[in-house]
Amino acid sequence: MMKAASASLSSNDGARHDGPRRCIYNQADMEHFRRSPARKELLSFVSAMGTGLASSDASPHGGYDPRSPLANLAPALASLRGSLSCMSETWMDPNRGGIPPDSKAKARFGNPAFRTWHARLVERSYGIVRCLMECHVEHSSSGCGDADARGDDVAEARMLKDCAERGYRAASDEGPSLWRPNAEGNPSVPAESCSNQESIITELRAYLHDAFGHPIRIDYGTGHEASFIVFLLTCCKIGCFSWAGPNGGQGGDDKSQSQPSPRVVGAASLSLFNAYLDVTRGLQRDYMLEPAGSHGVWGLDDYHCVPFYLGACQMVAREEWQKQNRPSRKKHIVANEGTDQVSKGDSEDEAERRMPDTPYLPETTSPVTDRSALVSDPPDVHDHWTPSIIHNRPVMETHRPTYLYLSCIHFIRQIKPNVPFFESSPMLDDISHLGSWSKVSSGLLRLFEGEVLDKLQVVQHFVFGDVFEASWVPSRKAPPEAPRRTFVNGPMGEECIAPWAYSGEDGRGGG
How far apart are CA 410 and CA 395, in angstroms? Predict the structure, then answer.
């Protein structure tokens, strides 16, 4: 588990107020990033998310219950989840003031209405982050209030609900008028800490703006997902994952306040990623965001990576819970679209040998070609699920609200309904040949490291601030600007003006 940084809301004297900026431009910068504390922190944080889930023995679902999504969240994170709920429920619904896709758009990918959606994100991000920090400052120092309240689960649930409702309002139409820069209308913010908090808010907003896609290219990929993880990492480093509540796992001492337990990080990340995916899936589906840097069918997924890792770790938690509660019962579930490689009668050694052929997972032996449809009854929490459970439609439909991995597979089937799964997602189909979820989770973490953190094409878009900090001097002070007037010279030496550069009545390009 990574150490939480010592950054705080009130101690950031060297803060720069020009906001985060790019620091990776070429291979030399990339080598600095590979050896930097920032990369180590980011990878450790993602690993801690999964470790916290896999080590959870309190429930068969890693501590996440869709009926109680605020459980195990700190007040600041409850506010963030409320904001994400508002974004998924209202920002794309025309009946609730949302921004519907442009029905006249002809492009296969990239509905231009997304640019309006992203402009709303930029407009309301200040209120979202400000509300998150206010909930943290207001509640974290003393939990639910006094000692009696901290021991009262009802009071805790009421407080978390209140924070979530405040976060929802911050992301709604009234948010910009309630939360304004420089603490206007927020007398609870001490004047002496206002400047430092504004610097942190600026940094968090930058990560949030990059977490939902690019407004010019109208695309989304693992780099944008990584920006959301950087946002969560920064929240963790300033203490927003920690609080003194009875179920927060913090205990109230100084050490626990500065370093949340893996269980807290895992449960919180699972709840927040479920809410985050509700937003991004709506964007991908309604605005047809182009997959950024996708490997097509040869990649894990068009858009995401980390949710599959967290989902696999959640399945590991389920296995561990079963071992502790019903160690004698082991019932195998057979997939309904073949891949019966872990059906009843298979030995553990046979299951372990059936592995996918990918650069991040062990090599395969012989492929499974039998795709006969064998359907089992929907299982309960004591049924033994191997990775092949993704082919069991009744199980997936029943349990996808709880289990993130099943939810990810369901969304792929939903947006690619007429394509056999082994053709649309061959890597995920290969992964379903594995015999244990622990192998899946470890392989997916290596894939995140290799295909996201070690790819210049992805991390070159990262921005760095004072909390998530670049420890090297970048090769450039600022990114090069695109030409504004002359694009190229014409064949006869005439000036060729880029179409987007025209301005004025004379039709000449702006200069």
Answer: 11
Q: What is the DSSP string of 1-55?
A: -PPPP---SS--TT--TT--EE---SHHHHHHHHTSHHHHHHHHHHHHHHHHHHT
Separation CA 317–CA 63 (nearest Å)? 9
User: Whole-model pTM?
Assistant: 0.80
* 127-155 average pLDDT score: 72
Q: 10 Å Cβ neighbour count for 139?
A: 24
Q: How does pLDDT run across 214-239, given as a tens digit for each residue?
A: 999 999 999 999 999 999 999 999 99
The band of 152, judged by pLDDT with boundaries at 50, 70 and 90, is confident
Give the span between the Cα atoms of 273 and 84, in whole angstroms: 10
Q: Find where tokens 């998310």 sit.
A: 49
Span 375-398, average pLDDT? 76
H/E element holding 489? strand 486-489
pLDDT at 181: 73
H-helix segments, 222-291: 222-237, 254-258, 262-286
Residue whose structure tokens are 């070429």:
26
Quote the DSSP letter at residue 336.
B
* CA distances for 263 relative to 19, 49, 64, 123, angstroms: 32, 8, 11, 34
**What are the CA-CA distances from residue 428 to residues 204, 228, 387 (Å)?**
33, 23, 10
**If we measure between CA atoms, which residue out of 46, 39, 37 comes closest to residue 6?**
37
What mean pLDDT is predicted for residues 385-390? 93
Residue whose structure tokens are 């023995």: 57
